[in-house]
Each structure stands twice: as C-alpha cells, then as structure tokens.
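Practice problem: predict the structure.
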Amino acid sequence: MDLEHKAIERIKMAAEMSQAYYGKPLIIVTSGGKDSDVCVELAKRSGIAFEVHHHTTADAPQTVYHVRQQFKKLEEQGVSCTINYPIYKNQQVTMWSLIPQKLMPPTRSIRYCCSVIKEAANANRVIVTGVRKEESVQRSSRGALERLGRTKKEMILFDDGLDEENDQIVMDKIYLNNDNDPRRRPLEHCQTKGKFVCNPIIDWTTRDVWDFIHSEKLEVNPLYQCGFDRVGCIGCPMAGKARYWEFEQFSAYERMYRRAFAEMLDARKQRGMDTRWKTADEVFSWWMDDKNLDGQMKLDV
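Answer:
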C-alpha cells in the first residue's frame, strides 16, 4: 500500500468513526502549513464529507492570507470552513492578552498557549492533523489515530489501525500515554473532551510531503519561499533559536510580546507576587534564551 493510499484509508476510517461516534463529519484542522494542505487534499480525494477548521494564533500575515484563500476555494466547493477564535474564562483572547492572565510567558515545558488556543476546541469530534514522526523525537513513534488527554490516565492510544498485508482496518494494542511520550500512535482519543485525533501522514517524510505538493501542484503558504521551514506561531518557544530570525522578519510581533510581558509584570505586582524581573526587556531576554537569569531559577505562579 503506497503512502497516499494508506493515508486516504486512514482518513476514511476516521470519517466512519466520526459518523458512528458523533454523527458529524470529520474535521481537518489546518495550521496553514504544508502538512495541513496535504491532509486537506487527501480528504478531498477520499470522497468523504468533511469540514476544515483553523485555530487562529500568533500567525504571520502570510499564513492568515493563505488560510483565507484556501477557505474561499473550499467553500466554493461546498466544504464548511471555520476559524476558531480562542476562548479563556469565557472571553475571547489572543496570545498577547493571555500572557498577562497566565502571569508568566509560555515556555517549552509549560505550553498553556497550546492548551487554550489550539487544544480546547473541537470537543466531541474526530479531527485530522498533519502530525508526522519526522518532526520531533517525541513524535517519532506516533501513529495515525490517537486519544489525547491532560494526564497519563486520560491517554489511550491505538496502533496504526491498518493491516497493510490484507488492506483491512484493525484496532490493535491499547495502552496509556502522555503528551510527550515517544510511544504516540496513529489513533488517539481524549476521554475528557471525547476527541479522536487521526494523523494520516504520520509516516511521511518531509521529502514525501514536498514530492506530493510538487507533483499535484498544490498551493502552499508563501512563507516557505521566504526561508521558513515551519509554519506556526511567531515566537513559539518550540522553534528555539529560529525565533531570533522570525522576529527580524516580523518586528511588530516582538513588540507585542514585550508589551504583553510588561502587562504581565504589572499584573504580578498588583497581586503581590514576587519576581526578580524588573522590566519587560529582562523577561524577553530570559524567554528568548530559554534559560533563567541569575536568581530567577524558579517562577512562583
């Protein structure tokens, strides 16, 4: 079974689960990146009914425009498209209004931004993402359908779900897991939110993705032509040192983060919370270097 055929079969399986569990179409979650674009194209080729959702975050302007253009074309084809705006404490928020409320910057280990902005939506639905094993060590053993949760006890994962030898859909091993465990598998499900996650291109390499894009002449985010190798939130801590270059390209985003850090410090002072950070510049330096300033080894939140 070739990669495209296998991915389409996974999508069809997820679509069947979506109708069986919730009586609703499958949702393709798009970030505006190349992997999401491939998943949308594969869903179209599968012949299933599906919706497309985008979780707006600290997206670059090019990403916003690309998603809008993609949605316009999909809606003309009869596909329902939705932009999900993040809600926190019953109020619509942005990355920069969330930081003062959380009283600390988002970090690699405390990714509250993902929890609020990306993961809170689509409860009680089956969704498709463009997650791939090659993207990180944590994802290197993930598979096509997953069940996500906030704690280890809430995590149940399934193996691939496809018997390649006989081209049959199967459900194999079930075991507990957590967000960063390398045993992540193709099918995941969140008990607390009733959310199944299908990762149809989990075993595709970056070359496989680009080969498919070029052969099928898919339109992708113009950021890739500007030197970006990833599309996501500008300033995401998971991007490491690449953030310095991102902020050179989008200086307005750096100013918004610095402003949010200043508001965060004011909020901490109003609550009488101790901090050795005196200025937003100090917070930004700590945050960018992903290490602690002298005396700031632990943040009291």
